[in-house]
Amino acid sequence: MSAAGDLALGVRLSVAGGRSGWLRLTLIAAGVGFGVAMLLLMAAAPTASTNRQQRLADRAMGVTAERAGPGTLLALTTQTRFRDEAVRGRILRPEGDRAPVPPGVDRVPAAGEMVVSPALAALINGPGGAVLGDRWSARVVGVIGPRGLSGPDEVYFYVGSGTLTRDDGAARITSFGGGAAPVTDPAIVVLVVIGSVIMVLPVLVFVTTAVRFGSESRERQLAAVRLVGADAAMTRRIAAGDTLIGAVLGLGAGGLGFLGLRRVVGGLLPVDFSPYPSDLRPVPILLLLIVVLVPVGAVLVTLAALRRVVIEPLGVVRQSGARRRRIWWRLIPPAVGAALLYPLLDDPAGSEAQLAAGVVLLLIGVVVLLPWLVQAVVRGLGGGSVAWQLGIRRLQLDSDTAVRSVSGIAVSVAGIIAIQGILAASVAANNGVQPPDDRFQAVVYTNGADGTGWEAALVGTPGVRQVRTSGYAELRQDGDDQAGVTVRVGDCDTLRQYAPLPSCTDGDSFAGTMSGWYQTTVLPPGASVGVYGTDEKKPLSRWEVAAGLPVVEQYTSDAGPVAFLATPSALGIRGGLPVDAYLLRLDPADPDAIEHVRNTMIRLDPAAPLQLFGDDRVGNQFAGARQVAQACAVLLLLFIGASMLVNVTEQLRERRRLLAVLAAFGTPRRTLSAAVLYQVAVPATVGLLLSVIVGSSLSAVLLAATHGPVDLDWPVIAGITAAVAAMVVAVTAGSLPLLFRLLRTQELRSE
């Protein structure tokens, strides 16, 4: 019979295997199907990202023009917020009857009209949305189609204007498209890359584990095949056919699972990354690889597993024996990965492919190093109790099965530590640089615009209790006509919104610094400078830079850093300063006070920056992502725990005759249970230590590459360690019923 015929016979025997055979097929199909669904999602991620980037590029402003014409359009990009939602859009004014139309809409909205995304329409029509609907003084006349949005949950709009000019900052364009899509934050790219890796590698481990699901009836079936005349090679091919049908069914189940998952996966992602279900189409070459390699891999895994199994007419016997592993080739993947990541320390703008390759190779290094490391560790262990000796001796003879399941844990833990480190640093960085909100709650910047009438408009805004202004000035030395250093001018309460001051009274001044900012022009102590305001030719006063000025680290501000902060009396000025900031004290009893301020600013200047003090929205997003990552980590460890339980079960079944002999000679159940625990715990401990070292190193490298503080999150590492320890105990407890069943004297019977 040919090899194909042997595989076909294995398929027929598997289908006709009765309840036990169908149960085994179900387990294989479920395990492979889950893994295939995850692999298909990973394979669809590049297509979803490409489609999203293409839509963003298609709606970007295209070719600009200097003069108005029938085919020109004035467009001003603006952004606001409604509660915690970012609301982005453009103000449009056509200058002719052939003005370009943005993608996703049928026509350019006229003055007083606007078209919105479905998500924005839901906000306007939802609870409290009336204040948002009044922001643009326009009525909604349509909905933006999918071609004009990055994703289904994006909050976006186009509003028509009859007064927009280039003096407002608008661009005159003749087309849409051809521009570059917004650049993604490097930290987000790092999280996506590592998240994909730690999902794919454990899934591959689980798929290879799922095809190893076995049963006693299957072994009796294979022995019967040998009894009727099949040779060893033919029997292995028949066994591979048995697995092949399960893998094919798993492919189908995984495909159906993927079709269901892609309808809900968008709701699990941040708004800026949520895809349309139609975007999630696997890359053809990756789809082909999954469809081909999963069944082929299942067959190869089965054949590899049967290499050390002797199938005889009277039963199945497994060979054992220690193999000496070599380390030299195992050091190549982590060494190459480290070499790829090292340049990112000096140049974080390296390619995403380089980052992905470095992370993948470093995590693969955990997989290939672990078998050698476990063997090296257990080789030197000995002595101890009977249970310890039984467990360690088993690992010394054959640690392959134990390492297979532990490798998934090691890769996952290393990746989780790296992700948690980046998220923790992002939370700390965003929460640590926010100005206080006890005196003022928001600030509006003119951003170079004429702020005439702004103060009166803000004072008359509902929910605003007080408006205080802040100005700036330039400091120039005599004979220097170039732009000098800047100084932020305001009273002490105002200056405290820009930097944490040690103490402040009228007449004080401070030197300002900011992490990552370098002042090109430095004024030494004792320098005499002119203080220039709106009149750049005549100084308002003269100021001598005092020695020993207190140095303060400035908060992140939309106005940018300054070299000095000073009260007006310290500079000797009383007027003539350009006002660039209006600090607002809001009514705490009015939850929509800031929304009314945003409505006012849309009318005054839609492009004016508005900063909310104490704004922890970004920090909360990272904190929420951190919680999601922790939840995913728990689910991933449970997933791998199930894989480990399968491996432990396989080990117990392989040694059922030996276990029955030990029980017949009086070995207590407690001793054998402890031996099983040691067999699981020792490799898991070695793998956990390796993953902590690799994950911490990877976290430090990635934090340095993204200019974040290199500070490892030890509580998270301790929590992961405790979770793995609990999982090892749970796996041991889950294997005890089978262990106790295998200790019966019936297992000694031989035919």
UniProtKB/TrEMBL annotation:
GO terms for cellular component: plasma membrane. Its main location: membrane. The keyword Transmembrane helix applies. It is found in: Cell membrane. The keyword Cell inner membrane does not apply. Residues 194-309, 633-738 form the ABC3 transporter permease C-terminal domain. Keywords: Cell membrane, Membrane, Transmembrane, Transmembrane helix. The chain crosses the membrane at residues 21-45, 188-211, 244-265, 285-306, 327-345, 357-381, 402-429, 628-648, 676-704, 716-740. InterPro entries: ABC3_permease_C, Membrane_comp_ABC_pdt. It is a multi-pass membrane protein. PANTHER family: BLL1001 PROTEIN, MEMBRANE COMPONENT OF PREDICTED ABC SUPERFAMILY METABOLITE UPTAKE TRANSPORTER. This is Membrane protein. It comes from Winogradskya consettensis.
